[in-house]
Every structure is written in C-alpha cells, then in structure tokens.
C-alpha cells in the first residue's frame, strides 16, 4: 500500500507548510486593510409610523 509510505508525502507536506509559514504568511500579514473600522456609531434613522388608508 503506497499510501502508507510517508517518505515522499511527508517531505512535500513539510515543504509546503514551511513555504507558507516563512514566505507567504508574512507577506499577507503585512497588507493593511483598505477600510479600517471606525469607532463612530451610526446614526439611528428617524422613523415615522405608516398611515394605512383603511384604518
């Protein structure tokens, strides 16, 4: 059963995780979000009751 032989697959998994952890992840974390959240509260809209014509 070649699936149980970890020899080639372990190296591939280790290489891919090291590539992600050391190269790709720092590049992604250095990006700044374009829309930073603000602490302002949104104004509550003023609502008026609906007047139904049949009441």
From TrEMBL:
Start and end residues of each stretch annotated as Disordered: 34-55
Gene responsible for this protein: ATP8
Annotated source species: Limosa lapponica baueri
Keyword Transport part of the UniProt annotation: yes
A GO biological process held by the record: proton motive force-driven ATP synthesis
Annotated membrane topology: Single-pass membrane protein
PANTHER family the record matches: ATP SYNTHASE PROTEIN 8
GO MF annotations in UniProt: proton transmembrane transporter activity
Location(s), subcellular: Mitochondrion membrane
Name recorded for this polypeptide: ATP synthase complex subunit 8
Membrane spanning stretches: 6-24
């Amino acid at each position: 059963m070649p699936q149980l032989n970890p020899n080639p697959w372990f190296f591939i998994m280790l290489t891919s995780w090291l590539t992600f952890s050391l190269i790709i992840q720092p590049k992604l974390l250095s990006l700044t979000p374009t829309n930073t959240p603000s602490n302002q509260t949104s104004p509550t809209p003023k609502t008026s009751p609906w007047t139904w014509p049949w009441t």
